[in-house]
Amino acid sequence: MKDIPHIAKELFGDNHPAQCNGGHIICLNCYHCHLKFPDQIYDPHQGLASVIDATILKAETKKEEVTELCKTANQYKTASVCVNSHFIPLAKGLLEKPVKSCTVINFPLGASCPQAIVNEAKAVLEIGAEEVDLVQNLSAFLSGDYDNDLQCMQEVVKLCKKHKALLKVILETCYLTEEQIIISCLLAKKAGADFVKTSTGFGTAGATKENVTLMRKVVGPKIGVKAAGGIRTKEQALAMLSAGANRIGASSVKTILQ
Protein backbone atom coordinates (compact mmCIF):
# COMPACT_ATOMS: atom_id res chain seq x y z
CA MET A 1 0.00 0.00 0.00
CA LYS A 2 1.16 3.55 -0.74
CA ASP A 3 2.13 5.56 2.31
CA ILE A 4 0.06 8.49 3.57
CA PRO A 5 2.29 11.31 2.17
CA HIS A 6 2.36 9.61 -1.25
CA ILE A 7 -1.44 9.38 -1.33
CA ALA A 8 -1.76 13.02 -0.23
CA LYS A 9 0.59 14.20 -2.97
CA GLU A 10 -1.30 12.23 -5.61
CA LEU A 11 -4.54 13.85 -4.50
CA PHE A 12 -3.46 17.43 -3.87
CA GLY A 13 0.01 17.96 -5.35
CA ASP A 14 3.40 18.45 -3.73
CA ASN A 15 2.55 21.43 -1.54
CA HIS A 16 4.62 23.10 1.15
CA PRO A 17 5.10 21.18 4.44
CA ALA A 18 2.15 21.07 6.82
CA GLN A 19 2.48 22.51 10.32
CA CYS A 20 -0.39 20.55 11.88
CA ASN A 21 1.55 17.26 12.25
CA GLY A 22 -0.84 15.16 10.16
CA GLY A 23 0.53 12.03 8.57
CA HIS A 24 0.02 13.58 5.14
CA ILE A 25 3.16 15.75 5.73
CA ILE A 26 2.25 18.24 2.97
CA CYS A 27 -0.21 21.06 3.59
CA LEU A 28 -3.67 20.16 2.35
CA ASN A 29 -4.73 23.83 2.11
CA CYS A 30 -7.79 22.95 4.17
CA TYR A 31 -10.94 25.01 3.79
CA HIS A 32 -10.87 25.57 7.56
CA CYS A 33 -7.38 25.36 9.05
CA HIS A 34 -7.27 23.99 12.61
CA LEU A 35 -3.60 24.80 13.24
CA LYS A 36 -4.28 27.36 15.98
CA PHE A 37 -6.90 25.21 17.66
CA PRO A 38 -6.06 23.04 20.69
CA ASP A 39 -5.15 19.41 20.12
CA GLN A 40 -8.08 17.02 19.92
CA ILE A 41 -6.55 14.27 22.05
CA TYR A 42 -8.37 12.55 24.91
CA ASP A 43 -7.24 13.65 28.36
CA PRO A 44 -8.22 11.13 31.07
CA HIS A 45 -8.64 14.04 33.50
CA GLN A 46 -11.67 15.14 31.44
CA GLY A 47 -13.55 12.04 32.52
CA LEU A 48 -15.03 9.43 30.23
CA ALA A 49 -18.55 10.89 30.20
CA SER A 50 -17.34 14.17 28.70
CA VAL A 51 -16.32 12.48 25.43
CA ILE A 52 -19.38 10.27 24.92
CA ASP A 53 -22.10 11.05 22.40
CA ALA A 54 -25.11 9.33 23.97
CA THR A 55 -26.80 7.89 20.91
CA ILE A 56 -30.19 6.56 19.90
CA LEU A 57 -30.76 6.24 16.16
CA LYS A 58 -32.81 3.09 15.64
CA ALA A 59 -35.87 3.43 13.42
CA GLU A 60 -38.32 2.39 16.12
CA THR A 61 -37.16 5.00 18.65
CA LYS A 62 -39.95 6.56 20.69
CA LYS A 63 -40.23 9.93 22.43
CA GLU A 64 -40.00 8.27 25.85
CA GLU A 65 -36.65 6.67 24.97
CA VAL A 66 -35.17 9.98 23.84
CA THR A 67 -36.44 11.63 27.02
CA GLU A 68 -34.78 8.95 29.15
CA LEU A 69 -31.50 9.24 27.24
CA CYS A 70 -31.47 13.02 27.71
CA LYS A 71 -31.96 12.55 31.45
CA THR A 72 -29.01 10.15 31.52
CA ALA A 73 -26.88 12.55 29.49
CA ASN A 74 -27.70 15.40 31.86
CA GLN A 75 -26.89 13.22 34.86
CA TYR A 76 -23.46 12.19 33.60
CA LYS A 77 -22.76 15.34 31.55
CA THR A 78 -21.95 13.60 28.31
CA ALA A 79 -20.60 15.50 25.30
CA SER A 80 -23.88 15.29 23.41
CA VAL A 81 -27.05 13.38 22.72
CA CYS A 82 -27.22 12.14 19.12
CA VAL A 83 -30.71 11.56 17.75
CA ASN A 84 -32.47 11.45 14.41
CA SER A 85 -33.51 14.94 13.36
CA HIS A 86 -37.20 14.41 14.19
CA PHE A 87 -36.19 14.49 17.86
CA ILE A 88 -33.92 17.55 17.81
CA PRO A 89 -36.58 19.94 19.20
CA LEU A 90 -37.38 17.48 21.99
CA ALA A 91 -33.72 17.02 22.88
CA LYS A 92 -33.05 20.76 22.75
CA GLY A 93 -35.82 21.32 25.27
CA LEU A 94 -34.51 18.68 27.67
CA LEU A 95 -30.73 18.99 27.56
CA GLU A 96 -28.77 20.99 30.10
CA LYS A 97 -25.39 22.59 29.50
CA PRO A 98 -22.75 21.44 28.67
CA VAL A 99 -24.56 18.59 26.85
CA LYS A 100 -25.11 19.45 23.19
CA SER A 101 -27.67 18.32 20.65
CA CYS A 102 -26.33 16.20 17.81
CA THR A 103 -27.94 14.64 14.75
CA VAL A 104 -27.05 12.68 11.62
CA ILE A 105 -27.46 13.48 7.93
CA ASN A 106 -27.12 11.47 4.72
CA PHE A 107 -27.65 8.64 7.16
CA PRO A 108 -27.13 5.72 7.21
CA LEU A 109 -26.42 4.84 3.56
CA GLY A 110 -24.35 7.82 2.42
CA ALA A 111 -26.18 7.70 -0.90
CA SER A 112 -28.17 10.96 -1.24
CA CYS A 113 -27.61 13.45 -4.04
CA PRO A 114 -25.49 16.52 -3.15
CA GLN A 115 -28.43 18.95 -3.09
CA ALA A 116 -30.39 16.68 -0.77
CA ILE A 117 -27.40 16.49 1.59
CA VAL A 118 -27.02 20.27 1.66
CA ASN A 119 -30.74 20.83 2.17
CA GLU A 120 -30.80 18.33 5.02
CA ALA A 121 -27.85 20.10 6.64
CA LYS A 122 -29.67 23.44 6.37
CA ALA A 123 -32.80 21.96 7.90
CA VAL A 124 -31.15 20.39 10.95
CA LEU A 125 -29.03 23.46 11.64
CA GLU A 126 -32.01 25.79 11.42
CA ILE A 127 -33.87 23.80 14.08
CA GLY A 128 -30.89 23.98 16.42
CA ALA A 129 -28.55 21.01 15.97
CA GLU A 130 -25.23 21.93 17.58
CA GLU A 131 -23.29 18.98 16.18
CA VAL A 132 -23.82 17.23 12.85
CA ASP A 133 -22.58 13.75 11.93
CA LEU A 134 -22.50 13.52 8.12
CA VAL A 135 -22.08 10.22 6.30
CA GLN A 136 -19.66 11.02 3.52
CA ASN A 137 -21.08 10.63 0.01
CA LEU A 138 -20.14 6.95 -0.15
CA SER A 139 -21.85 6.43 -3.49
CA ALA A 140 -19.65 9.10 -5.05
CA PHE A 141 -16.52 8.07 -3.16
CA LEU A 142 -16.71 4.35 -4.00
CA SER A 143 -17.36 5.30 -7.63
CA GLY A 144 -14.08 7.25 -7.64
CA ASP A 145 -15.77 10.66 -7.73
CA TYR A 146 -13.68 12.25 -4.97
CA ASP A 147 -14.46 15.78 -6.15
CA ASN A 148 -18.17 15.23 -5.57
CA ASP A 149 -17.53 13.81 -2.11
CA LEU A 150 -15.22 16.70 -1.20
CA GLN A 151 -17.64 19.32 -2.49
CA CYS A 152 -20.51 17.84 -0.45
CA MET A 153 -18.39 17.99 2.70
CA GLN A 154 -17.27 21.55 2.00
CA GLU A 155 -20.83 22.78 1.50
CA VAL A 156 -21.88 21.25 4.82
CA VAL A 157 -18.78 22.67 6.52
CA LYS A 158 -19.75 26.16 5.34
CA LEU A 159 -23.23 25.78 6.78
CA CYS A 160 -21.94 24.39 10.08
CA LYS A 161 -19.46 27.25 10.47
CA LYS A 162 -22.26 29.74 9.79
CA HIS A 163 -24.29 28.17 12.61
CA LYS A 164 -21.27 27.60 14.89
CA ALA A 165 -21.92 23.86 14.80
CA LEU A 166 -19.40 21.02 14.91
CA LEU A 167 -19.13 18.69 11.90
CA LYS A 168 -18.10 15.04 12.10
CA VAL A 169 -17.69 13.08 8.86
CA ILE A 170 -18.62 9.39 9.04
CA LEU A 171 -16.43 7.25 6.79
CA GLU A 172 -18.24 3.91 7.30
CA THR A 173 -14.90 2.12 7.46
CA CYS A 174 -16.36 -1.38 7.12
CA TYR A 175 -16.79 -0.75 3.39
CA LEU A 176 -13.32 0.76 2.85
CA THR A 177 -9.79 -0.51 2.32
CA GLU A 178 -6.95 1.02 4.34
CA GLU A 179 -6.05 3.22 1.39
CA GLN A 180 -9.66 4.35 1.03
CA ILE A 181 -9.78 5.18 4.75
CA ILE A 182 -6.68 7.34 4.28
CA ILE A 183 -8.19 9.11 1.26
CA SER A 184 -11.49 9.67 3.10
CA CYS A 185 -9.68 11.18 6.09
CA LEU A 186 -7.68 13.48 3.80
CA LEU A 187 -10.81 14.65 1.98
CA ALA A 188 -12.65 15.30 5.25
CA LYS A 189 -9.71 17.22 6.68
CA LYS A 190 -9.25 19.28 3.53
CA ALA A 191 -12.98 20.06 3.51
CA GLY A 192 -12.63 21.60 6.98
CA ALA A 193 -14.42 18.96 9.08
CA ASP A 194 -13.87 18.98 12.84
CA PHE A 195 -13.90 15.19 13.24
CA VAL A 196 -13.62 11.99 11.28
CA LYS A 197 -15.81 9.14 12.54
CA THR A 198 -15.53 5.41 12.01
CA SER A 199 -19.05 4.13 11.51
CA THR A 200 -22.80 4.65 11.45
CA GLY A 201 -23.46 1.53 13.51
CA PHE A 202 -25.68 0.32 10.66
CA GLY A 203 -22.94 -1.15 8.45
CA THR A 204 -21.46 -4.64 8.42
CA ALA A 205 -19.02 -3.78 11.24
CA GLY A 206 -18.30 -0.97 13.68
CA ALA A 207 -15.19 0.68 15.10
CA THR A 208 -11.88 -1.15 15.38
CA LYS A 209 -8.75 -0.08 17.22
CA GLU A 210 -6.75 -0.52 14.03
CA ASN A 211 -8.93 1.86 12.03
CA VAL A 212 -9.00 4.43 14.83
CA THR A 213 -5.20 4.34 15.03
CA LEU A 214 -4.92 4.77 11.26
CA MET A 215 -7.39 7.66 11.21
CA ARG A 216 -5.53 9.45 14.00
CA LYS A 217 -2.23 8.93 12.19
CA VAL A 218 -3.64 10.48 9.02
CA VAL A 219 -5.34 13.56 10.47
CA GLY A 220 -2.87 14.33 13.26
CA PRO A 221 -3.74 15.91 16.62
CA LYS A 222 -5.77 18.91 15.46
CA ILE A 223 -8.78 17.02 14.12
CA GLY A 224 -11.01 14.88 16.31
CA VAL A 225 -11.49 11.14 15.82
CA LYS A 226 -14.81 9.60 16.85
CA ALA A 227 -15.14 5.87 17.36
CA ALA A 228 -18.67 4.52 17.01
CA GLY A 229 -20.36 1.23 16.27
CA GLY A 230 -20.33 -1.77 18.59
CA ILE A 231 -18.91 0.02 21.64
CA ARG A 232 -20.93 -1.34 24.55
CA THR A 233 -18.55 -1.57 27.54
CA LYS A 234 -16.23 0.72 29.44
CA GLU A 235 -13.29 -1.46 28.43
CA GLN A 236 -14.14 -1.11 24.74
CA ALA A 237 -14.53 2.66 25.08
CA LEU A 238 -11.18 3.04 26.84
CA ALA A 239 -9.49 0.86 24.22
CA MET A 240 -10.74 3.18 21.47
CA LEU A 241 -9.52 6.23 23.38
CA SER A 242 -6.10 4.60 23.83
CA ALA A 243 -6.02 3.92 20.08
CA GLY A 244 -6.45 7.63 19.33
CA ALA A 245 -10.14 8.50 19.57
CA ASN A 246 -11.27 11.54 21.53
CA ARG A 247 -15.02 11.01 21.13
CA ILE A 248 -17.10 7.86 21.55
CA GLY A 249 -20.53 7.20 20.07
CA ALA A 250 -22.52 4.74 22.18
CA SER A 251 -26.07 3.77 23.02
CA SER A 252 -25.09 1.77 26.14
CA VAL A 253 -24.27 4.89 28.13
CA LYS A 254 -25.18 3.66 31.60
CA THR A 255 -23.33 0.38 31.09
CA ILE A 256 -20.19 2.24 30.04
CA LEU A 257 -20.28 4.88 32.77
CA GLN A 258 -21.56 3.02 35.83
Task: Walk me through the topology.
Blueprint: H1 4-12, E1 52-56, H2 63-76, E2 80-83, H3 88-94, E3 100-105, H4 114-126, E4 131-135, H5 138-142, H6 146-162, E5 166-170, H7 178-191, E6 195-197, H8 209-219, E7 224-228, H9 234-243, E8 247-250, H10 253-257
Parallel strand pairs: 1-2, 1-8, 2-3, 3-4, 4-5, 5-6, 6-7, 7-8
Helix pairs in contact: 1-7, 4-6, 6-7, 7-8
Structure report:
Belongs to the DeoC/FbaB aldolase family. DeoC type 1 subfamily. Catalyzes a reversible aldol reaction between acetaldehyde and D-glyceraldehyde 3-phosphate to generate 2-deoxy-D-ribose 5-phosphate. It catalyses: 2-deoxy-D-ribose 5-phosphate = D-glyceraldehyde 3-phosphate + acetaldehyde. This is Deoxyribose-phosphate aldolase. Pathway: Carbohydrate degradation; 2-deoxy-D-ribose 1-phosphate degradation; D-glyceraldehyde 3-phosphate and acetaldehyde from 2-deoxy-alpha-D-ribose 1-phosphate: step 2/2. The longest helix has 17 residues. Strand 1, helix 2 and strand 2 form a beta-alpha-beta unit. Helix 1 packs across helix 7. An 8-stranded parallel β-barrel has the order 1-2-3-4-5-6-7-8, surrounded by 7 helices. Helix content is 41%, strand content 14%. It has one domain: TIM Barrel (Alpha-Beta Barrel). It contains 10 helices and 8 strands. The chain is α/β, with parallel strands linked by helices.
> Helix/strand/pairing class, anyone?
alpha/beta
CATH superfamily: Aldolase class I
Q: Mean pLDDT, nearest integer?
A: 97
Low-pLDDT runs of 5+ residues are none
- Shape, please? globular
Question: What's the number of domains?
Answer: 1
Terminal CA distance: 42 Å
* CATH hierarchy: architecture: Alpha-Beta Barrel
As for the CATH topology, it is TIM Barrel
Which range does the strand content fall in?
5-15%
Number of strands: 8
Q: In DSSP terms, counting alpha (H) and pi (I) runs of 4 or more, how many helices? A: 10
Order of neighbouring strands in the sheet with most strands? 1-2-3-4-5-6-7-8
- What order do the SSEs take from the amino end to the carboxyl end, as H and E? HEHEHEHEHHEHEHEHEH
Radius of gyration from the CA trace?
17 Å
Multimer state: single chain
